[in-house]
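User: Run a structure prediction on this.
Assistant: Running it now.
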Amino acid sequence: MNPGRYRYTIFSMLFLIALINYVDRGALSFAANAISAEYHFSKVQLGAVLGYFGFGYLFGSLCGGFLADRIGTKKVWMMAGVLWSILEIATAWAGDLGMALFGGSAIMGFAALRIMFGFSEGPAYALMNKAIAHWAPDNERGFALSIGLLSTQVGSLLTAPIAVGLLLLTNDWRMMFILLGVMSLLAMLLFARTFSDSPDTSAATHAAEREFIHRGQKVTQHDDTPLPWWRFFTSRTLVCNALGYFSFLYITFTLVTWMPKYLQDNFHYDLHALWYVAMIPWSGACITVLLGGRFADWLLARFNNLRLARNVFAAVTLCGTACCFMAIPWMHSAAGIIALMTLGNALNALVNNVYWSVVIDVTPKSSVGTYSGMTLAIANLAAIISPMLCGWLAEYYGYNAMFTVTAVIAFGSMLAMTLLQPEKRLHPQTEANVTQQTA
């Protein structure tokens, strides 16, 4: 008997909302030149504007995962989605609000709104991981994660034509933010009608599919016992995994926030060319993020070795990523640089599912939301550091220094991923046992 496929509707809905999440956050980069000209921002100041998002995002990811474990995933998704849509609309007047409320400082207006906007978008990927932990059987988890995580790459790819298209259509960067916010609100209405926290709470899921999902998930006696937040830091695997994920997000935010301006400044692309040129570095990643999940599932099924499917896979991929970005300063043609960006970003996306799979590997279901949020919070220091550091490097040392630092960070994360112990699952135990395990 066919168990049904409503879980794929859930995966698709997660993909859609996370994609919109990424388009909304990335649109500011394509309005950067117009905003900088209007408010006379330097590269360092623009880097600060782009980086303020990360402060809110860090705390939002922590709160979102924590709340999902306590009040439910759907409620947190709805609160976050409606709030970030309203704040996307309000970004149209961020500079004017700063001028009126903060002593004539436009940058403070952007700071306030981007921090709140980051906070509202922060829960997204922790919520996604929590949902997949409930909806995906173990043998589909890697693929389900890949569908959800594909939103990062497709969202970044589509941000260019959507944002530039709205800018050219309206000839007004403010109207771009208003329209994006309205579209987000409409998407949240669709989400509210479709999504449920788990198969057991979904009226659209047949009993056969519920049984299929539950039977396909490895259950331990501790899955319903929440772990205290501090246990995260007793796990070498979770800490090193978060440090590894930092590299993925650092590269992603470097490209999302600074690639459009880099292409405009160095190769003089105008908006009519930027809409398709800025898509290219994300094209390969849209494919590899799906292949990565399939490949990780195949490695685990073929060799039954979590370290091979997690540690080795991630370390080799990050090494290739670092080499691509290290080579960019030595390439002088636009085509060569874009090709290296595309290959490096594709390799970076290939291992994206590993970071989220590791959290599910070692964490009881009752704590997946909290620990996913903590992983995301640590890694999302990149959302603060990358835009600001890139702006400072570009201002004082040139764009080549920006790519060299990106490569060094990827090499560091490669080393962190070699230290994972994904076969060691966390479970409630006495303080003495914790000390014995971590010794």
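Confidence is low (pLDDT under 50) at residues 430-439.
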